[in-house]
């Protein structure tokens, strides 16, 4: 048991740095581990037949499921395959978890566990669920026995409902446990630091039912609600959920939610070991809302600088823009780290994000309060400008008032996206230097005022540029 616990703690530590995205936004009550009509938009076409060891696994699936079946793929989360390899027994050898649907039983999805015994892959057991789709699949030791369970979020596209089931492999049997819990977002992680994972759910407000976070675990075969906490009641859906380190000493969860009335908001949830309860520190209990992290642009929380700690976005408009003409490039985003001990935020870095979400650019300290941007979407150009102060006059029948506003002045830096063909043919590339190339595109920059006191070197520009896809 001690060795198994050691394996668990090592695996749990590795999971904390991973960002888990869930696209399931499912709002009504749980259907149970068996019980909903089915709808599927998935194609019935078979994928190419696998080769090698995976071919042996597929053969077992064909033999057990019959000739006419369709693989079912999770729609969100870290695991997107219909056949997932994961060690469920702690022996260092992975089992295969297969998800499929029979053509003559379209109301059910089956989960089969296939294990290698004496060099031969065999069916260790299967269960079925009445559901239309597999929302998400995850793994964790949520019952504290030293081995991993399979945690599946099931959904129904017709009713908009969701449910969670936990599956445990025991000898030649797969047993199912229904959490009897709906969810808008679900994560599996060790939130309380005991070396075993818990199941975290977040639900938006529905009718008289307020928004809430809940933490579950299983002990002695029974479901335990470890903690609950209120969430922002104005959020209509969660667009992102990430679990990991909030700081060097605290694991937590960040939730990015969309509001129908005003943009986006980020919430933080963590487990307080002294009070032994879930905490949502940004929530104003008197209003049931979060105001600290409200923003209008769609930048989402993430580990933006690769330090394995989650950062929260705080965005402000650049000079010269208003909410009416703002794009992502019109915002400066301060990425903040939250300290649960001192209840304070620390700025880690500041970026401008391309409006098409292709890249972000790190703003050096000397540029803070000194620059603005302009975007040419047709030619895929982003230009950084210095600022100048311009006086304006506001006149009415009683008084004349003068005020100063900031407008763009001298261009400093231009970033442009070329096709590989354009770049090789040197079409309009004079003065540009390559930052990087990806997916038949070349990202290049041109320093427009090299003698200016705010000018960056080519090396600094390269170090400040990063593709959004590199964050994932």
Number of E-type strands: 29
- Mean pLDDT level: 86
Shape: globular
How many strands, what sense, and barrel or not for the largest sheet? 5 strands, antiparallel
- Rg: 26 Å
Q: How large is the share of residues in beta strands?
A: over 45%
Total of DSSP H or I helical runs spanning 4+ residues: 4
Q: What would you call the structural class?
A: mainly beta
Low-pLDDT runs: 1-5, 16-31, 34-45
Q: What is the CA–CA distance across the termini?
A: 35 Å
> What would you call the quaternary organization?
single chain
Classify the helix fraction into a percent range: under 10%
Characteristic key phrases:
single chain; mainly beta; 5-stranded antiparallel beta sheet; 4 helices; 29 strands; globular
Write the layout of secondary structure elements.
Elements: H1 2-15, H2 53-65, E1 69-71, E2 83-86, E3 95-102, E4 108-117, E5 120-130, E6 133-140, E7 149-156, E8 161-170, E9 173-178, E10 185-189, E11 198-203, E12 212-219, E13 222-230, E14 235-247, E15 250-259, E16 264-272, E17 277-279, E18 283-284, E19 289-290, E20 312-317, E21 331-339, E22 344-353, E23 359-362, E24 371-376, E25 381-395, E26 400-419, H3 420-424, E27 433-438, E28 441-447, H4 458-464, E29 465-467
Antiparallel strand pairs: 1-3, 2-3, 3-4, 4-5, 6-7, 7-8, 8-9, 10-11, 11-12, 12-13, 14-15, 15-16, 16-17, 18-19, 20-21, 21-22, 22-23, 23-29, 24-25, 25-26, 26-28, 27-28
């Amino acid at each position: 048991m001690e060795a198994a616990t050691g394996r668990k703690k090592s695996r749990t530590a590795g999971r904390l740095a991973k960002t888990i995205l869930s696209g399931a936004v499912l709002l009504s009550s749980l259907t149970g581990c068996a019980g909903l009509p089915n709808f599927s938009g998935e194609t019935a076409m078979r994928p190419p037949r696998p080769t090698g060891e995976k071919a042996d696994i597929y053969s077992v699936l064909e033999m057990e499921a019959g000739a006419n079946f369709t693989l079912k793929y999770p729609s969100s989360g870290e695991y997107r395959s219909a056949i997932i390899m994961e060690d469920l027994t702690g022996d260092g050898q992975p089992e295969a978890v297969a998800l499929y649907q029979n053509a003559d039983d379209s109301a059910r999805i089956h989960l089969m566990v296939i294990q290698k015994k004496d060099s031969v892959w065999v069916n260790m057991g299967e269960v079925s669920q009445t559901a239309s789709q597999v929302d998400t699949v995850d793994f964790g030791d949520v019952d504290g026995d030293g081995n991993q369970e399979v945690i599946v979020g099931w959904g129904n596209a017709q009713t908009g409902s969701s449910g969670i089931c936990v599956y445990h492999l025991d000898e030649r049997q797969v047993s199912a446990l229904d959490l009897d819990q709906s969810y808008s977002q679900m994560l599996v992680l060790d939130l309380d630091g005991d070396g075993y994972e818990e199941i975290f759910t977040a639900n938006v407000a529905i009718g008289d039912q307020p928004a809430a976070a809940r933490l579950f675990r299983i002990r002695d075969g029974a479901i335990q609600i470890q903690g609950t906490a209120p969430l922002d009641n104005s959020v209509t859906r969660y667009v992102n959920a990430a679990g990991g380190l909030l700081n060097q000493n605290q694991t937590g969860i960040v939730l990015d939610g969309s509001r129908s009335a005003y943009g986006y908001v980020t919430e933080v949830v963590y487990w307080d070991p002294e009070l032994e309860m879930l905490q949502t520190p940004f929530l104003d209990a008197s209003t049931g809302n979060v105001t600290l992290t409200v923003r209008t642009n769609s930048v989402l929380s993430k580990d933006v600088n690769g330090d394995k700690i989650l950062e929260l976005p705080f965005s402000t408009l650049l000079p010269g823009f208003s909410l009416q003409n703002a794009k992502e490039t019109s915002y400066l985003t301060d990425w903040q780290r939250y300290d649960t001990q001192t209840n304070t935020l620390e700025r880690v870095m500041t970026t401008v994000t391309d409006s098409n979400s292709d890249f972000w650019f790190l703003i050096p300290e000397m540029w803070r309060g000194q620059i603005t941007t302009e975007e040419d979407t047709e030619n895929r150009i982003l230009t950084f400008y210095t600022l100048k102060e311009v006086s304006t006059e506001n006149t009415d029948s009683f008084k004349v008032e003068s005020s100063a506003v900031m407008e763009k002045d001298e261009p400093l830096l231009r970033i442009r996206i070329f096709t590989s063909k354009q770049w090789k043919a040197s079409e309009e590339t004079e003065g540009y230097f390559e930052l990087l190339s990806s997916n038949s595109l070349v990202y290049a920059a041109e320093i427009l005022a090299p003698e200016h006191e705010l000018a960056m070197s080519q090396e600094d520009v390269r170090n400040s540029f990063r593709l959004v896809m590199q964050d994932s």
